[in-house]
Amino acid sequence: MSVSRFWRKIPQRYNLIGTQCTSCGRYFFPPRSLCPDCRRSGKIVDHKFNGEGTVVTYTVIRSASDQFEHTTPYVLAIVELDEGPRLTTQVACLPEEAKIGMRVRSVFRRIAADGESGTIHYGTKFVPTE
Amino acid sequence: MRDVAVIGVGCTEFGEHWGTSFRDLFVKAGALALEDAGISGENLDALYVGNMSAGRFVEQEHIGALIADYAGLATNHVPSTRVEAACASGGLAFRQAVIAVASGMEEIVVAAGVEKMTDVGTGASVDMLASAADREWEGFAGATFPGLYAMIATDYMHRYPLTREQLAQVAVKNHENGAKNPIAQFRNRITVDTVLNSSLVADPLRLFDCSPITDGAAAVVVVPLERAREFTDSPVRVLASAQASDTIALHDRRDISTLDASVAAGKRAFAQAGLTHKDIDMLEVHDCFTIAEICAIEDLGFCKKGEAGRLTEEGVTALGGEIPVNTSGGLKACGHPVGATGIKQIYEIVNQLRGEAAGRQVDAEIGMAHNVGGTGATVVVHILGA
What pTM value is reported for the model? Predict the structure, then answer.
């Protein structure tokens, strides 16, 4: 991912800042600038999520793209944040520990790097809380 | 709107074509289709070409013009349009051709699909395929394309009584069909053990749950139904052409294990054709992974959620079964050159409806094609009738 493309979403990626539609109250992560329910009549503001959530489904990635190959196997999951939205994330746990319904919280982690001399991409992963 | 018919089809062998270029694959499929239709290039009014990612696979954009040029149509200035919807690009190209003819804007139109995937390494192609999903919020986290379907499988198996063996049966059945298809990439039979002993790609999916990386091209010719008999004694009618969208990311879906776009496109297709499930004699569905075939059968309404695994195990979807699914071998065994797959599905159904499917022939007068982009963000469904 290019430097500018990564940089422009640093607050969202580092601090789990999404958005909320103040017209209907719905939360969005990944952030949306248009509410799918209220569309143009919705007013969108930033919202920092508390980072607590539950694993909806998961897998263990054994074969990855070049950027992630050296970190396999890793647990990839869809996590539902307590405020409602769902996101795709890595869960920093052993493959055999992962399960549906597991409670998790967000942590700041290194995600990947653009080659050996490229930008290091940090962001959010989740860890089990139980 | 005019009724539309398919009058000719052509397809290259699917496989690893180290010696054949992107443009040569297309030219071969196009020539086969024109020959089958008994027309020549100068009769064509337009081309629609499905292609997912030539820009990244062979570093070539402007595919419509390239194809027209190497098909010998540039000097006639035949309009040529590339259509892209990830793995549903082929189905979408067919739909564009059907719309063009149905509207009266065009008369004789080629719908084609082509993908050349083996000019890059496996890691690079895994990365490209992941761009069918949300690059910024799925791919960035380390999601691979098999990984996303694996998360569908995990959710599905948690909620419904699908066994790992039943899932493997999908691949076994599709290899059995592929073994009888002369264009299939894999013409070898496998067993449940082959699947269960293959390496894990993304739990619970193993290598033999996954469609392969493939080079290939396919093309079909469509005309107004009223003119079809000028060209062929066995035109195949397009009874429905439907398309639906959903969220680009799997995590935003209403239900992880249901492709709502399949449900919507399926319903629209049945409504257009005025048909019910009982009328469909065969299905070509988008089995990019074994779990995808299970979901497709259910989401299109051929059985209730949670039943497709058992039906597969009982042979209901096999060649001799009540509703044969993926007689071509599907994406799993016939191969999956992403942009070409949707057109190959039409190619297979036309062959079946004309009674030209040789060793894998089923008794069919009406067939349905189901082509998925990404994890279900685009679904295209067509119904064809003899």
Answer: 0.98
